[in-house]
Amino acid sequence: MNIGKQFKEGLVTNNPVLVQLIGMCSTMAITTSFFNGLGMGLSVLIILTLSNIIISAIRKIIPDKIRIAMFIVVIACFVTCVDLSLQAFVPALSKALGVFLPLIVVNCIILGRAEAFCYKNGVLASTFDGIFQGLGYTVVLMIMSIFRELFGSGTFGAGVINGTSGVRIIPEQFPAKILTLPVGGFLCLACLIAAMQWALAKSNKKKEESK
Amino acid sequence: MKLTDLFSIALGAILVNNFIFSQFLGCCPFLGVSKKLDTAVGMGIAVTFVMGLASAITWIVNEFILVKFDLLYMQTVVFILVIAALVQFIEMFLQKSMPALYTALGIYLPLITTNCAVLGVALLNIQNHYNFIESVIYGITGGLGFLLAIVLFAVVRERNVFADCPKCFEGFPIALITAGLMALSFMGFSGLQVW
Known about the structure:
The complex is a heterodimer.
Chain A: H1 3-13, H2 24-29, H3 34-57, H4 67-89, H5 91-97, H6 108-118, H7 123-152, E1 155-156, E2 167-168, H8 182-210
Chain B: H1 3-16, H2 27-32, H3 37-66, H4 75-97, H5 99-105, H6 108-111, H7 116-127, H8 132-160, H9 172-186
Helix pairs in contact in B: 1-8, 3-4, 3-7, 3-8, 4-5, 4-7, 7-8, 8-9
């Protein structure tokens, strides 16, 4: 087990959104403000870590044929816990995320990690995998949501700082409203993935040259 | 309930609030299986079928079990189990009675379980307080909207392969940009209304 390697994989070389290309729906849908992005990222991080722990702990007693159904039940339980907690303690966030909160159940990241990693690895390794993969997802969400909020509506941190309006950075008449629309989500994610492909290709080239 | 209400739900689900281009539900299969036109059509039809059936069954389950016994907090767990079981049943039924269609759909059928459009439509039906008929209409037309989107996208993407684009945009990013431009064109429907 190598925590440093897992950390690097989760955040950069095997990032769930930018490299594995899974969990795109929520990434594009809710990143219109920093508050939503952070809330969604942390919810997924918590659910992913907890379900990774449970699934890796029971991996030896799950019959092979119904493992997907078992994974989904475990994940759905944690999603319900987080959903109800958010409704009780952070109602504004639960309202903003709407249907995408219960939809974490079918977020491919969680099911994908359960199938690809937890089913083959021990509890400790799976815990770290959950934390780092969740962090990778959260970081992407935060980059996208800060960008889209700043250039789309000209504010920062609406809902976190300064009440619901946030800090206004770009005057009201200038922001490109299109970034907060669905189109902006597709375009932002495309540019981020392209940047990631460029960076990975460059670092691979460097490694080959040094050899 | 008026017929125009149903028509406006249908129009909304197919064009104005298209599941993919304005609600981001079902993006994974949309981007994953749209490389070829024929698989895209198969996936679209399968999703339409499952969405219609799932919205009918989850509505019944919600109304007569969850609401009646005051178990609404179990909604997510129950819905995903119902959908998983439904997909499994459809798979077995198709395998037995329509083997040609079964082999055509292949691996896409089990994947529908984790399609967020299916669970999404079940949850949205409850959130929008639709009655039974409205739910079924919303499910089926939502699926048709998905079918329309994925077919259009597959056609564009087949030509995209021959296009010359910057190296780092090759493959997935250029597909996303295409999808973004299609979402932009679908925004043109946003003023559409039925009285």
